[in-house]
Design brief:
Layout: E1 2-4, E2 9-11, H1 14-26, E3 31-34, E4 56-61, E5 64-74, H2 79-98, E6 104-113
Helix pairs in contact: 1-2
Length: 119
């Protein structure tokens, strides 16, 4: 994403956008962690917090920003409520940080797990 101003040009990389998005997801209620985009052997791989960015895909097409998030949700929570919470939080945080609207935030629930805190 880039913006031209009278003072110069501002460029924000998809990696930076993904970092904001992944940090926002990990703060959401009901999220155990981020998952890899592909299922290995039909199982979701839980990514370590320092690699959470790998569970985010950002596409920028002109002024249109689309974010796909791959998450693992805590077993026993209402999946639709957790997903809507993720969508709202990520959209809000990105729009606040970037100053431009986010077109889509798509949540892909890759699996369910009992969180470490719940044990």
């Amino acid at each position: 994403m880039s913006e031209q101003t009278t003072l110069g040009r501002i460029e924000i990389s998809p990696v930076a956008i993904g970092t904001i998005a992944s940090e926002s997801v990990l703060e959401c209620y009901g999220v155990v962690g981020m998952a890899s985009k592909s299922l290995m052997g039909g199982l979701a791989q839980l990514l370590r917090p320092e690699r959470a960015r790998r569970g985010v895909e950002v596409r920028v097409d002109g002024e249109r920003i689309v974010v796909d998030l791959y998450v693992i949700v805590e077993y026993g929570t209402r999946i639709s409520e957790v997903a809507h919470g993720i969508m709202n939080r990520v959209k809000y945080r990105l729009e606040k940080a970037l100053g431009v609207p986010v077109a889509e935030v798509n949540v892909h629930v890759q699996g369910l797990r009992v969180s470490e805190q719940g044990r």
